């Protein structure tokens, strides 16, 4: 097993972690302002409060297709597929054909 790297009293201002596995990472006594976190995030605790359910509820509200994608009902999955395909921009070859027809 790989040992944990510890950063103590380090200035990581403006640091970017991209495609990193931070499973089990702990940020204790940190200052974090204007931070952005995006990825597969589960069991996230912020200042002692588990916030994953809240974040998931907001994302489901803002993107209702997420609920359909998790469904086991084939009709819901078909509807999710229809919505996702409708939202996708056309491929470049389709754009060329449609602009040539105009």
Summarize the structure in words:
The protein has four helices and two strands; from the N terminus they run E-E-H-H-H-H. With 102 residues, the protein is mainly α. It has a domain of 44 residues. Strands 1-2 form a two-stranded antiparallel ribbon. It is extended and about 60 Å long. The mean pLDDT is 90. This is Pentapeptide repeat-containing protein. InterPro entries: 5peptide_repeat. It holds the Pfam family Pentapeptide.
Query: What pattern of helices and strands is seen along the backbone?
Result: EEHHHH
**Termini distance?**
61 Å
Largest sheet composition: 2 strands, antiparallel
CA-based shape:
extended
Number of helices: 4
Number of strands: 2
Strand arrangement across the biggest beta sheet: 1-2
Mean pLDDT: 90
The helix fraction, in percent, is 40-55%
Low-pLDDT ranges = none
The whole-angstrom Rg is 21 Å
Strand fraction equals under 5%
The helix/strand class is: mainly alpha
Protein name: Pentapeptide repeat-containing protein
InterPro entries: 5peptide_repeat
Region (Disordered): 80-102
Organism: Amycolatopsis marina
